[in-house]
Amino acid sequence: MDYHSPMSEHKTPAVVTLLQRLRELHPQAKQTTLREMVAGKRVLVNGRPALSLKMVIGKKDRLEVGDREVATSRKITFTHGLKLVHMDSDVVLVDKPSGMLSATDAQEKRPTVLKVLTAYFQKQNQKNQIHLVHRLDRDASGLLLFARNWGAFRLLKEQFFEHTITRRYEMIVKGVPRKKSGRLEHLLVEDPLTGVVSVTKDSKKGKLAILDYEVLQEAPKIGPAGVAHVRCTLFTGRKHQIRLQMLAMGHPVLGDPAYGLGTKGPEFSRLALHAAHLTFKHPGSGKRVAYDSPMPGSFSHLLRG
After folding, report:
1. Domain coordinates in residue numbering, the chain
2. With bands split at pLDDT 50, 70 and 90, how would you rate the model's confidence at 49?
3. CA separation (Å) from 1 to 20, 24, 62?
4. CA–CA distance, 42 with 49 (Å, rounded to integer)
5. CATH class of the structural domain 15-65
6. Per-residue pLDDT tens for 127-137?
7. Which of 31, 26, 87 is nearest to 54 (CA)?
8. Quick one: average pLDDT of 237-260?
9. Which fold, 168-274?
10. Which neighbouring-strand residues pair with 212?
11. In this structure, which long-range contacts are made by residues 115-120, counting pairs with CB atoms below 8 Å and at least 24 apart in sequence?
12. Are 126 and 109 in contact (CB under 8 A)?
């Protein structure tokens, strides 16, 4: 949106700072929000991104503020194999590698996605915020969503709570399911001492887990019972949900170090589970946005035999 308009001669001095001008245009916005608008390259002065809230703005300068959903054009490289998928002033979406923790307690010495992003953004400005919206298992890979302010965080968490976010996963399972698609519903309970999750029939202890699955490709000659490429859509977000529900179905996820032990199947170097798709309502623009991450090449290579 172009906000260029003549300012009142008797009320406004010949020059003002960008901060003063933005406060005139957005009187309800906090200074942190205005700073994030500049950091996200949303504020243009005479067609170029503003560099600081302190820069001087003349009456003839043209000021534009872009939509919140516009991603930065800068190329960003994170450490530990973490890849940027999308970033704007409200959200950050990354592609997490297998083996990396999403987040944990302050005593954790291993790198986590939250630590890497926090270090990056606070290096730019100590007041920058980063908030984890959901988690991925350490051994899984794929799309992981973060919020850059509390307002965006609350709106995104509401969507997860109301199950209006679409989450799809790609995986390789042991064996070939007879039924090629369907819905799985189980009650899951977590052991408070070990953190291990199991299926239960006790409705007072278990939490309902629901997912839809679809077999996309079969490779019956790989391993003693074959393997299959399965896509699933989550309707709940329970800990280790996909891994437990596929195990309960008789087809554990390949390479699962916790729930796949003792089951027959080929060896695989990692958990064959990848968060491939996210659709959500953008907290800034209010539009439905969708992002995808391709299935790892090691999965495809296995299916080819």
Report:
1. 15-65, 168-274
2. confident
3. 18, 15, 11
4. 7
5. alpha beta
6. 888 999 999 99
7. 31
8. 91
9. Pseudouridine synthase (3.30.2350)
10. 183, 233
11. 116/78, 116/79, 116/80, 116/82, 117/78, 117/82, 117/92, 117/146, 120/76, 120/78
12. no
Residue 4, pLDDT > 90, answer no
Give the residues across from 49 on adjacent strands: 44
Backbone φ and ψ of 196, nearest 5°: -75, 135
The three-state DSSP-derived secondary structure of the chain is: CECCCCCCCCCCCCEEEHHHHHHHHCCCCCHHHHHHHHHCCCEEECCEECCCCCCEEECCCCEEECCCCCCCCCCCCCCCCCEEEEECCCEEEEEECCCCECCCCCCCCCCEHHHHHHHHHHHHCCCCCCEECCCCCCCCEEEEEEECCHHHHHHHHHHHHHCCCEEEEEEEEECCCCCCEEEEEEEEEECCCCCCEEEECCCCCCEEEEEEEEEEEEECCCCCCCEEEEEEEECCCCCCHHHHHHHHHCCCECCCCCCCCCCCCCCCCCCCEEEEEEEEECCCCCCEEEEECCCCHHHHHHHCC
Count the neighbouring beta carbons within 10 Å of the beta carbon of residue 204.
7
Number of C-beta neighbours around residue 207 at 10 A: 16
What is the C-alpha end-to-end distance of the chain, expressed in Å? 53
Q: What is the reported pTM?
A: 0.75
d(CA 259, CA 271): 10
In this structure, how many other beta carbons lie within 10 angstroms of the beta carbon of residue 110? Answer: 11
Could you give phi then psi for residue 149, rounded to 5 degrees?
A: -160, 165
For residue 305, the one-letter residue type is G
The two tokens of residue 52 are 């600081």
Number of C-alpha atoms within 13 angstroms, CB side, residue 215?
A: 19
Q: What percent of the chain has pLDDT over 90?
A: 51
pLDDT at 93 over 70: yes
